[in-house]
Amino acid sequence: MQRRSKLVGRFAPSPTGRMHLGNIWAALLAWLAVRSQDGVMILRVEDLDPERSKKSYSEQLMKDLDWLGLDWDEGPGCGGIFAPYYQSERFGRYDVAFRRLVESGHAYPCFCSREERNAASAPHRGEQTGIISDPCLEMSALQRQIAMDTRRHTWRLHNHGEEIRFIDMNYGDFRHRLDMAQDHVVLKRSDGVYAYPLAVVADDGEMEVTQVVRGSDLLISTPVQLYLMDLLGYERPRYGHVPLLVDVYGHRLSKRQKSLDLGALIAAGWTAEGIIGFLAYQAGFANETAPVKARDLLDRFNWGIIGTQDLVLSEEALAQAR
Ligand code: GLU
Q1: Are residues 254 and 280 part of one domain?
Q2: How many domains are there within the chain?
C-alpha cells in the first residue's frame, strides 16, 4: 500500500568523488522535475561499493547540493519515513529482495570470470541476438551445488527474454527485449556486495519513488530495472532521462575531468547562481547565461525544451561563459 499522496522523486549520487558539472546538471533537472510539481525530494547516497565510496565525499556532496540551492526533504541529515538513506546501511533490505528472487528462480549463481563471460557472450555484429545461453544456467542441481561449495560466484538475474516497454517522459516509447548478455545483470558480487540494479530497484520500490529523473546513460538499464520492479511487486515509477553533457569528443563528462569538478569551478570564480544559470541556458530555460537561483527556474521547467540531444560542452565555452 502506498503511504504517500505526493509525487516522490530522488537524486541518487554515488559518493566516489567531488560533484562535477555533469552530476550537477542531472541533480538540477531531477530537482526541478520534483519541485515544479510540489513533490517530495529524496536524497539517497549510493555508497554500495565499499572500495570506491567515501564518507568524506558524501559529506562534501551534501554541502555542495546545499550551496547550489538544491534541497531535499528526506535523506541523510534530516531522516524520513524510509530511513536510512545510505545504501551501505540498507543491506538487510537487499537480502530480503535477493532471497525472493532466488526463491522464485530469477537469480542464479554464475561461476564465469568476467573475461570468460565477455568472451562467451560477445554478440557478432549484424547477428540477431537470441537469448544468450549462459553455461551456468545449463548446470544440473548437483553440479551447481558442488560448484557453489568450492568456487567464487556472482549471482545474476535469470530472465526469459521478455520484452519490456515503457514511456520515458523525455525519450518517449521505449522497448527492449531482455535477450542481451548484459540483461543477465549481476545482482550480487562474489564478495557479497549487492550490485546497483538490485539495490536501486529495492530502494526506489521501498521508498515509494514515483518519478526517476537521471542521465540518459541509464536509459538502457531501465528495462532490467522495470523487470525487477515487476518481479518484486513494486509499483513502477515514471522515468525521465535527460541528455548528457558531453565533451567535444562526445564523451560523457566525468569525475576524471578535474577542471569541471565543483572545487575547480569555485576556484575559477564560479558562483552557485552562475553555475545554475549556465546549466539553465544549456537546458533551454534561459536565453543567456545570467546567474539565477534554482528555485527561480521552477516555472520554466519543461521536458519539451530540454530535448534529447546530448549537449556538447567545451572548456573554452565554459571559460567564456563566466
Ligand atoms: N548512483 C548512480 C550514479 O551515480 C545513479 C543511479 C540512478 O539514478 O538510478 O550513477
Answers
A1: yes
A2: 2
pTM: 0.94
Looking at residue 131, what is its pLDDT? 55
In a domain, 235, yes or no: no
Range of the domain at 124: 91-199
Query: How high is the pLDDT of residue 4?
Result: 79
**Residue 218: inside a domain:** no
For 86-131, write each residue's pLDDT tens digit. Answer: 999 999 999 999 999 999 999 999 998 877 776 666 555 555 455 5
Q: Within 6 Å (CB) of ligand 1, which residues are found?
A: 12-14, 46, 200, 214, 218
Tell me whether residue 143 is in a domain. Answer: yes
Out of 29, 200, 219, mutate this one to test ligand 1's pocket (max ligand atoms within 8 Å of CB): namely 200
DSSP collapsed to 3 states, the chain: CCCCCCCEEEECCCCCCCCEHHHHHHHHHHHHHHHCCCCEEEECECCCCCCCCCHHHHHHHHHHHHHHCCCCCEECCCECCCCCCEHHHCHHHHHHHHHHHHHCCCEEEECCCHHHHHHHHCCCCCCCCCCCCCHHHCCCHHHHHHHHHHCCCEEEECCCCCEEEEEECCCEEEEEECCCHHHCCEEECCCCCECHHHHHHHHHHHCCCCEEEEEHHHHHHHHHHHHHHHHHCCCCCEEEEECCEECCCCCECCCCCHHHEHHHHHHCCCCHHHHHHHHHHHHCCCCCCCCCCHHHHHHHCCHHHHCCCCEECCHHHHHHHC
- The preferred substitution site among 10, 14, 86 for testing ligand 1, maximizing ligand atoms within 8 Å of CB, is 14
* 230-254 residue pLDDT tens: 999 999 999 999 999 998 888 888 7
> Tell me: the pLDDT tens digits for 196-211?
999 999 999 999 999 9
Residues 43 and 122 in one domain: no
Determine the distance separating the centroid of ligand 1 and the alpha carbon of 138, expressed in angstroms: 33
CATH number, position 73: 3.40.50.620
Q: What percent of the chain has pLDDT over 70?
A: 94
In this structure, the answer to whether residues 104 and 183 fall within a common structural domain is: yes
42 and 109 belong to one structural domain: no
Shortest-distance atom of ligand 1 to CA 10: 8
Question: Last residue of a domain, which of 144, 171, 199?
Answer: 199
